[in-house]
Structures are given as C-alpha cells and as structure tokens.
C-alpha cells in the first residue's frame, strides 16, 4: 500500500510539472486542475494535526513549509454563546474551508461588556468560555487553525480601557488608558487572563488550550498603541514582559504581538514608508518591537482607505505594494522571522468603491505574497478582513466579504489557496528527496490575475 501511495504521489507531481507548470496562472483549466490534481496530492499527504512551528523565516508543520491563507472573523465566541447564532460559527468555517482558507484570527477576550467572557478581573462566565471551546472544536473539525487575540487596544469588546475602569473601581485613580501598559495591578489583571485562557481545558475536546495544535498562535493585543509615549519605550517594555510571560506558560505555541506595522524612532530611515506622519507618534516601532525574546513572527495590518485617503485611488494599490515589500524585506534582513499581513481589506462604504477594486487589492496582496513564497522569503501569509457567512450583514463594518454573494472575490481567494497548496506540495515532495526547500520554487512562475 505504501509503495502504491508513493508511486501515485510521484505520478501526481509528474503531472503537475509536465502538464500544469506551463498552463498554470494562464487561465487554462484552473478549476479542473485544482480539483483533480492538487487536492489529491494534499489529501495523500494528510499530515497529522500537529503544532505549527517556525524554522528561520518560514512556518513549518512536521518540518515542512506551511504558508498561510486566512481570514478574520472576530465575533465567533459571542455568536457561539447564543443558541440562535451558534450555527453561524459553523457556517463561516465551512464556507472558508471550501475556498481553502487555513487560518482564522478571532477574539479570545470580551472584557466586562455584553456577553463578557471576563466579567471582572479573574471572574469568568463559564457559558461564554464553553462558547470559545465550541469555536476551537469547530475550527479543528474544518481543519482551520486559530490566531487567538488576548485583548484589544480599542474599547470594542472591552480592551485596555476596560482594564483601566476595573483599576479605578479598585481605587487606583488612573487617568489614561495607556496606564494599562505600566500599572502593576493592570498588568496582573492581564496576566491572570492570559494564564486562565492558556490553561483552559476545552469542555468539548478535553484538550488544554496550550496543548492544542488547532491554535496557530497567541496574539498579545490587537493593534497596540501607546501615544502617551512616542519614544516607544513603554510599549517595548510591556511586550518584553508579556511575550516572555506567555512563553513561560506555553512554550509550544507561536506568539505574535498584533502590531499594525508602523515604523518608529529607532528606524528613522524607514518612517518614509509609513502611511502618514501620525503613524510614528503612536509608540510602536515595527523592527524594534519584533526583536524581542518570545516573539516568533511579525504582524502587519494594511488599511490604505483609513490611513491615506478614504476615497478609492490607485495610490492605495501602490501603497499596499511598497508597505508589504518593505516589511517582507525587514523580516528577512533584520528579524529572521516570517511576517503575516494579518488584516487587510477595503470598505464598501468608501467613496468610489466597487468590487473590481476590492478584487484588484486582494490580488495585489496575494501576488506580492506569492512572489516572496516563490523565492523562499519571509512572506508567511495574509488574513483578509473579514469573512462573514450569510445572515450576518447587520454586523458588517463595510469590510465584510460574504463568499456566497461575492463570486469573483471568492474565486480569487480559492485560486490563491490552491497555489499555496501547490507550493507546499511541491516543496514537500522535493524535501522528501533531499532538496533544499529554500530553492524549491526556482523557475516556477505565475502571472497576475488582474
């Protein structure tokens, strides 16, 4: 049986190289090939569900490269907490899986607000925790891994402002939300939350979160900013403390910060890549922040319509290209780690918006990523903001993509998934035969969809 399997794998790769390489990315039998060839190879590999790790500037599963194509859906835990909306969690995983998405980023926090996970410091709603258990178990069922964010810079779902409110309720007399990063009591609240989540035993799978390979990574905080200290020292110290703290509890999982990617005072030669001058005044410092013990990969967000101008413009595409390339280069030259573009999108509410522009923006992100992948670079993947299932339009912030109602966008996402599967499959096959994976894609070409 093993011999037949090996021979079939070799035959499948032979077909890919001889029949597929010349037609791939030229629009010839795209769907047919992806359905009948790439998926077969991927199914034959059928890797065990093991922890994702990193090796230098690449993610690996079972010592083989793993490239990310993913999405954000932040509200999964809250929807899972209500019987009337729980099915939407299954729907979004099912639809995302159908187009090949492999990573979902979502909140593992809801601090002191409606349907709060953490009602008060170290006081939890068990029903909401069971809802998070359901999210994790459903993700595993659809072979989707999770980036779980542990709190928010913004007041949505509580975040650092809620921690400050809790501090004031305890008599601390705090005056600035940035006290979240410095006050010992607030830091102890955050650490307690981290410890509780990481040590949680899933009531459905009976697996402790810190041992579950369904979790791709822990994110310290969504989009941290500390404008009260533009030097960046305050945030730097907080990241140093919390990254190591997470690793002391869970040394197995990857850790990332949750940064937007703005350049700070430590790299004056790089601030030219920032979308505006305000970006270097919010206390973040992309390269410096990621040179911290315990941080495994870099995170970057991309919102040209928020940062440059709301009106749709070709300048948005140009910014995306330079922003991505700059951070990929930094991850290779200075950080030696993968970089994930963990939020990107465009709002339907922007003046001049149309689906064609959204598709062009997404294709730009994917093609820039594929160029890095082909070279064995630090581009680790991207996560579109955001994928929603049918019937959740009332939650739409303008960026929601409902796959069933967006055939052109869905097709672009699906093709990108198939291409990453091809890269992974080719590299796996080559690595089994002793080739250097860094050079496994030499001579393999693609062309832009748009």
TrEMBL record:
PANTHER family for this protein: MANNAN ENDO-1,4-BETA-MANNOSIDASE 6 (PTHR31451:SF54), PTHR31451
Annotated GO CC locations: extracellular region
EC number annotated for this UniProt entry: 3.2.1.78
Residues of the signal peptide: 1-23
Gene3D superfamilies assigned: Glycosidases
InterPro entries hit by this protein: GH, Glyco_hydro_5, MAN-like
Localisation per UniProt entry: Secreted
Family: Belongs to the glycosyl hydrolase 5 (cellulase A) family.
Alphabetic keyword roster: Glycosidase, Hydrolase, Secreted, Signal
GO aspect biological process, one term: polysaccharide catabolic process
Catalyzed reaction equations: Random hydrolysis of (1->4)-beta-D-mannosidic linkages in mannans, galactomannans and glucomannans
Name of protein: mannan endo-1,4-beta-mannosidase
Highest taxon in the source lineage: Eukaryota
